[in-house]
Amino acid sequence: MDATTLVAACAAVVLGAALQRVAGMGLGMVAAPVLTVLLGPAAGVLTSNGAAIVTALLVLGALHARVDWGRVAALTPLVLLGSVLGALTVRAASAAWLDVLVGGSVLLALAATLALRRRVRVEGRPASLVTGLAAGFMNTTCGVAAPAWTAYALATRWEHRSFAATLQPLLLVANVTSLATKLLLGAVPPADIPAWWTWPVLAVAVVGGVALGSVLARVVPTRVAAALAVTVAVAGATTALVRGVMTF
Question: Which family does it belong to (predicted)?
Answer without folding.
Answer: Belongs to the 4-toluene sulfonate uptake permease (TSUP) (TC 2.A.102) family.
